[in-house]
Protein backbone atom coordinates (compact mmCIF):
# COMPACT_ATOMS: atom_id res chain seq x y z
CA UNK A 1 0.00 0.00 0.00
CA UNK A 2 2.82 2.38 0.91
CA UNK A 3 4.57 1.59 -2.39
CA UNK A 4 1.38 2.33 -4.31
CA UNK A 5 0.97 5.71 -2.61
CA UNK A 6 4.62 6.50 -3.19
CA UNK A 7 4.18 5.78 -6.90
CA UNK A 8 1.54 8.50 -7.20
CA UNK A 9 2.85 11.86 -8.40
CA UNK A 10 1.12 14.05 -5.84
CA UNK A 11 2.48 17.22 -7.43
CA UNK A 12 0.26 16.64 -10.47
CA UNK A 13 -2.83 16.25 -8.31
CA UNK A 14 -1.89 19.36 -6.31
CA UNK A 15 -1.33 21.44 -9.43
CA UNK A 16 -4.54 20.25 -11.09
CA UNK A 17 -6.53 21.19 -7.99
CA UNK A 18 -4.85 24.37 -6.76
CA UNK A 19 -3.14 25.67 -9.92
CA UNK A 20 -5.21 24.52 -12.90
CA UNK A 21 -4.06 25.79 -16.28
CA UNK A 22 -6.17 27.86 -18.68
CA UNK A 23 -7.09 24.80 -20.76
CA UNK A 24 -8.61 23.11 -17.74
CA UNK A 25 -10.41 26.31 -16.69
CA UNK A 26 -11.98 26.47 -20.16
CA UNK A 27 -12.95 22.78 -19.93
CA UNK A 28 -14.53 23.45 -16.51
CA UNK A 29 -16.51 26.38 -17.91
CA UNK A 30 -17.62 24.26 -20.86
CA UNK A 31 -18.85 21.53 -18.51
CA UNK A 32 -20.91 24.04 -16.54
CA UNK A 33 -22.52 25.85 -19.46
CA UNK A 34 -23.33 22.64 -21.33
CA UNK A 35 -25.03 21.29 -18.20
CA UNK A 36 -26.98 24.52 -17.56
CA UNK A 37 -28.19 24.95 -21.15
CA UNK A 38 -29.09 21.27 -21.49
CA UNK A 39 -31.03 21.33 -18.23
CA UNK A 40 -32.96 24.50 -19.12
CA UNK A 41 -33.91 23.20 -22.56
CA UNK A 42 -34.75 19.82 -21.02
CA UNK A 43 -37.14 21.47 -18.55
CA UNK A 44 -38.88 23.32 -21.40
CA UNK A 45 -39.20 20.10 -23.42
CA UNK A 46 -40.44 18.26 -20.34
CA UNK A 47 -43.09 20.91 -19.69
CA UNK A 48 -44.30 20.77 -23.29
CA UNK A 49 -44.39 16.97 -23.19
CA UNK A 50 -46.28 17.02 -19.86
CA UNK A 51 -48.87 19.43 -21.27
CA UNK A 52 -49.16 17.27 -24.39
CA UNK A 53 -49.77 14.26 -22.18
CA UNK A 54 -52.67 16.15 -20.55
CA UNK A 55 -54.12 17.24 -23.89
CA UNK A 56 -57.55 16.12 -25.10
CA UNK A 57 -56.02 15.30 -28.50
CA UNK A 58 -54.94 11.68 -28.54
CA UNK A 59 -52.15 12.21 -31.14
CA UNK A 60 -50.43 14.61 -28.73
CA UNK A 61 -50.82 12.16 -25.84
CA UNK A 62 -49.47 9.34 -27.99
CA UNK A 63 -46.53 11.45 -29.17
CA UNK A 64 -45.69 12.40 -25.58
CA UNK A 65 -45.82 8.76 -24.49
CA UNK A 66 -43.64 7.65 -27.41
CA UNK A 67 -41.12 10.39 -26.60
CA UNK A 68 -40.75 9.15 -23.03
CA UNK A 69 -40.68 5.50 -24.09
CA UNK A 70 -37.86 6.00 -26.59
CA UNK A 71 -35.61 8.45 -24.73
CA UNK A 72 -35.97 6.89 -21.28
CA UNK A 73 -35.61 3.39 -22.67
CA UNK A 74 -32.34 3.83 -24.60
CA UNK A 75 -28.87 4.69 -23.25
CA UNK A 76 -27.94 8.36 -23.38
CA UNK A 77 -24.59 7.52 -25.02
CA UNK A 78 -26.48 5.90 -27.92
CA UNK A 79 -28.60 9.03 -28.26
CA UNK A 80 -25.48 11.23 -28.28
CA UNK A 81 -23.87 9.13 -31.02
CA UNK A 82 -27.10 9.05 -33.04
CA UNK A 83 -27.55 12.83 -32.87
CA UNK A 84 -23.91 13.65 -33.67
CA UNK A 85 -23.12 11.00 -36.28
CA UNK A 86 -26.57 10.15 -37.61
CA UNK A 87 -28.49 13.44 -37.85
CA UNK A 88 -26.49 14.81 -40.78
CA UNK A 89 -26.91 11.54 -42.72
CA UNK A 90 -30.57 11.20 -41.80
CA UNK A 91 -31.58 14.69 -42.92
CA UNK A 92 -29.17 14.96 -45.83
CA UNK A 93 -27.56 18.25 -44.74
CA UNK A 94 -25.29 19.53 -41.97
CA UNK A 95 -27.60 19.80 -38.98
CA UNK A 96 -24.50 20.15 -36.80
CA UNK A 97 -21.72 21.83 -38.81
CA UNK A 98 -18.11 21.91 -37.69
CA UNK A 99 -18.76 25.27 -36.04
CA UNK A 100 -22.06 27.07 -35.40
CA UNK A 101 -21.90 30.87 -35.51
CA UNK A 102 -24.55 32.64 -33.40
CA UNK A 103 -23.19 36.12 -34.03
CA UNK A 104 -22.22 36.92 -30.46
CA UNK A 105 -20.48 33.59 -29.93
CA UNK A 106 -19.45 30.47 -31.84
CA UNK A 107 -19.62 26.90 -30.58
CA UNK A 108 -18.47 23.68 -32.17
CA UNK A 109 -20.88 21.32 -33.84
CA UNK A 110 -19.95 18.62 -31.33
CA UNK A 111 -20.98 20.86 -28.41
CA UNK A 112 -24.24 21.78 -30.15
CA UNK A 113 -25.00 18.12 -30.87
CA UNK A 114 -24.15 17.20 -27.27
CA UNK A 115 -26.45 19.87 -25.87
CA UNK A 116 -29.21 18.72 -28.22
CA UNK A 117 -28.87 15.07 -27.21
CA UNK A 118 -28.66 15.79 -23.48
CA UNK A 119 -31.61 18.19 -23.67
CA UNK A 120 -33.85 15.73 -25.48
CA UNK A 121 -32.91 12.96 -23.07
CA UNK A 122 -33.48 15.19 -20.05
CA UNK A 123 -36.84 16.32 -21.40
CA UNK A 124 -38.14 12.75 -21.22
CA UNK A 125 -37.29 12.53 -17.51
CA UNK A 126 -38.56 16.03 -16.79
CA UNK A 127 -41.90 15.17 -18.37
CA UNK A 128 -42.51 12.57 -15.70
CA UNK A 129 -41.32 14.90 -12.92
CA UNK A 130 -43.51 17.78 -14.10
CA UNK A 131 -46.46 15.43 -14.66
CA UNK A 132 -46.16 14.18 -11.08
CA UNK A 133 -45.98 17.76 -9.82
CA UNK A 134 -49.09 18.82 -11.73
CA UNK A 135 -50.99 15.69 -10.69
CA UNK A 136 -50.21 16.44 -7.03
CA UNK A 137 -52.34 19.61 -7.19
CA UNK A 138 -56.03 19.17 -6.41
CA UNK A 139 -58.03 19.22 -9.65
CA UNK A 140 -60.61 21.36 -7.87
CA UNK A 141 -58.22 24.31 -8.05
CA UNK A 142 -58.25 24.24 -11.85
CA UNK A 143 -62.03 23.91 -11.85
CA UNK A 144 -62.32 26.86 -9.46
CA UNK A 145 -60.07 28.96 -11.71
CA UNK A 146 -62.18 28.09 -14.74
CA UNK A 147 -65.36 29.01 -12.86
CA UNK A 148 -63.86 32.48 -12.33
CA UNK A 149 -63.40 32.81 -16.08
CA UNK A 150 -59.65 32.16 -16.23
CA UNK A 151 -58.45 30.51 -19.46
CA UNK A 152 -56.71 27.13 -19.13
CA UNK A 153 -53.27 28.52 -19.92
CA UNK A 154 -53.56 31.39 -17.43
CA UNK A 155 -54.86 29.08 -14.70
CA UNK A 156 -51.96 26.70 -15.34
CA UNK A 157 -49.41 29.53 -15.12
CA UNK A 158 -50.91 31.37 -12.14
CA UNK A 159 -52.52 28.62 -10.07
CA UNK A 160 -51.23 25.12 -10.81
CA UNK A 161 -47.56 25.43 -11.83
CA UNK A 162 -46.48 27.71 -8.92
CA UNK A 163 -47.82 25.14 -6.45
CA UNK A 164 -46.45 22.21 -8.44
CA UNK A 165 -43.01 23.80 -8.30
CA UNK A 166 -42.67 22.68 -4.67
CA UNK A 167 -42.97 19.08 -5.84
CA UNK A 168 -40.93 19.56 -9.02
CA UNK A 169 -37.88 21.40 -7.66
CA UNK A 170 -36.30 18.65 -5.49
CA UNK A 171 -36.14 16.00 -8.24
CA UNK A 172 -35.24 18.70 -10.78
CA UNK A 173 -32.26 19.60 -8.62
CA UNK A 174 -31.21 15.97 -8.51
CA UNK A 175 -31.51 15.81 -12.30
CA UNK A 176 -29.16 18.79 -12.69
CA UNK A 177 -26.71 17.20 -10.28
CA UNK A 178 -26.71 14.17 -12.55
CA UNK A 179 -26.45 16.38 -15.65
CA UNK A 180 -23.18 17.86 -14.42
CA UNK A 181 -21.70 14.37 -14.43
CA UNK A 182 -23.40 13.17 -17.63
CA UNK A 183 -21.60 15.88 -19.63
CA UNK A 184 -18.53 13.65 -19.38
CA UNK A 185 -20.10 11.37 -22.02
CA UNK A 186 -19.63 14.13 -24.60
CA UNK A 187 -15.91 13.36 -24.52
CA UNK A 188 -16.71 10.44 -26.85
CA UNK A 189 -17.74 12.86 -29.63
CA UNK A 190 -14.74 15.14 -29.13
CA UNK A 191 -16.08 17.77 -26.72
CA UNK A 192 -13.18 18.99 -24.59
CA UNK A 193 -14.91 19.19 -21.22
CA UNK A 194 -13.32 18.22 -17.90
CA UNK A 195 -13.16 14.49 -18.45
CA UNK A 196 -11.78 14.85 -21.97
CA UNK A 197 -9.14 17.28 -20.72
CA UNK A 198 -8.04 14.74 -18.10
CA UNK A 199 -8.06 11.96 -20.69
CA UNK A 200 -5.82 14.00 -23.02
CA UNK A 201 -3.25 14.50 -20.28
CA UNK A 202 -3.45 10.85 -19.28
CA UNK A 203 -2.83 9.69 -22.87
CA UNK A 204 0.39 11.75 -23.04
CA UNK A 205 1.74 10.97 -19.56
CA UNK A 206 0.20 7.55 -18.75
CA UNK A 207 -0.65 8.74 -15.24
CA UNK A 208 -4.34 7.86 -14.87
CA UNK A 209 -4.51 8.01 -11.07
CA UNK A 210 -3.26 11.59 -10.87
CA UNK A 211 -5.39 13.14 -13.61
CA UNK A 212 -8.61 11.22 -12.96
CA UNK A 213 -8.35 11.80 -9.20
CA UNK A 214 -8.07 15.53 -9.84
CA UNK A 215 -11.00 15.60 -12.26
CA UNK A 216 -13.08 13.57 -9.80
CA UNK A 217 -12.33 16.23 -7.20
CA UNK A 218 -13.63 18.98 -9.51
CA UNK A 219 -16.82 17.06 -10.30
CA UNK A 220 -17.30 16.70 -6.55
CA UNK A 221 -16.81 20.47 -6.12
CA UNK A 222 -19.43 21.25 -8.76
CA UNK A 223 -22.01 18.84 -7.39
CA UNK A 224 -21.39 19.97 -3.80
CA UNK A 225 -21.86 23.64 -4.71
CA UNK A 226 -25.08 22.76 -6.50
CA UNK A 227 -26.26 20.73 -3.50
CA UNK A 228 -26.00 23.84 -1.30
CA UNK A 229 -27.84 25.93 -3.90
CA UNK A 230 -30.55 23.29 -4.20
CA UNK A 231 -30.94 23.09 -0.42
CA UNK A 232 -31.33 26.90 -0.23
CA UNK A 233 -34.01 26.85 -2.94
CA UNK A 234 -35.90 24.05 -1.20
CA UNK A 235 -35.76 25.90 2.12
CA UNK A 236 -37.14 29.03 0.47
CA UNK A 237 -40.00 27.06 -1.07
CA UNK A 238 -40.69 25.37 2.27
CA UNK A 239 -40.82 28.76 4.03
CA UNK A 240 -43.28 30.11 1.47
CA UNK A 241 -45.40 26.98 1.77
CA UNK A 242 -45.66 27.13 5.56
CA UNK A 243 -45.51 30.92 5.92
CA UNK A 244 -48.92 31.06 7.56
CA UNK A 245 -48.29 28.20 9.96
CA UNK A 246 -46.74 28.41 13.40
CA UNK A 247 -43.82 26.21 14.34
CA UNK A 248 -43.85 23.70 17.19
CA UNK A 249 -41.86 26.06 19.43
CA UNK A 250 -44.20 28.98 18.62
CA UNK A 251 -47.23 26.85 19.50
CA UNK A 252 -45.50 25.79 22.72
CA UNK A 253 -44.78 29.43 23.61
CA UNK A 254 -48.37 30.43 22.87
CA UNK A 255 -49.64 27.60 25.05
CA UNK A 256 -47.41 28.70 27.92
CA UNK A 257 -48.36 32.38 27.62
CA UNK A 258 -51.62 32.14 29.70
CA UNK A 259 -49.75 30.35 32.49
CA UNK A 260 -47.12 33.12 32.60
CA UNK A 261 -49.80 35.80 32.70
CA UNK A 262 -51.58 34.01 35.56
CA UNK A 263 -48.28 33.65 37.49
CA UNK A 264 -47.69 37.38 37.22
CA UNK A 265 -51.10 38.11 38.67
CA UNK A 266 -52.82 38.86 35.42
CA UNK A 267 -55.52 36.34 36.17
CA UNK A 268 -56.98 38.32 39.14
Characterize the structure shown:
The protein is mainly α and 268 residues long. The protein has eleven helices and two strands, in the order H-H-H-H-H-E-E-H-H-H-H-H-H. Strands 1-2 form a two-stranded antiparallel ribbon. It has a single domain, classed as MetI-like (MetI-like fold), CATH 1.10.3720.10.
SSE arrangement:
Layout: H1 2-7, H2 10-18, H3 22-53, H4 58-73, H5 76-91, E1 99-101, E2 106-108, H6 109-135, H7 139-147, H8 152-182, H9 194-205, H10 208-241, H11 248-263
Antiparallel strand pairs: 1-2
Helix pairs in contact: 2-10, 3-4, 3-6, 3-8, 3-9, 4-6, 5-6, 6-8, 7-8, 8-10, 9-10
The CATH top-level class label: Mainly Alpha
CATH architecture: Orthogonal Bundle
Overall spatial form: globular
Low-confidence stretches: none
Gist?
The chain has helices at residues 2-7, 10-18, 22-53, 58-73, 76-91, 109-135, 139-147, 152-182, 194-205, 208-241, 248-263; strands at residues 99-101, 106-108. With 268 residues, it is mainly alpha-helical.
Q: What tags apply to this protein structure?
A:
globular, two-stranded antiparallel sheet, single chain, MetI-like fold, 268 residues
Amino acid sequence: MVHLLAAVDWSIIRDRIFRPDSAFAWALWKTVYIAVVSQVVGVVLGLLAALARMSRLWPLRALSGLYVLVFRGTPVIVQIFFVYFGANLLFGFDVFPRAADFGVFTISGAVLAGITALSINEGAYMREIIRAGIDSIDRGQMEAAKSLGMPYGLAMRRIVLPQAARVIVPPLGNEFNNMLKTTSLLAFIGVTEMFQDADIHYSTTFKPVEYFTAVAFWYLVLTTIWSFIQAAIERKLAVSEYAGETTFWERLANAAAPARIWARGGGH
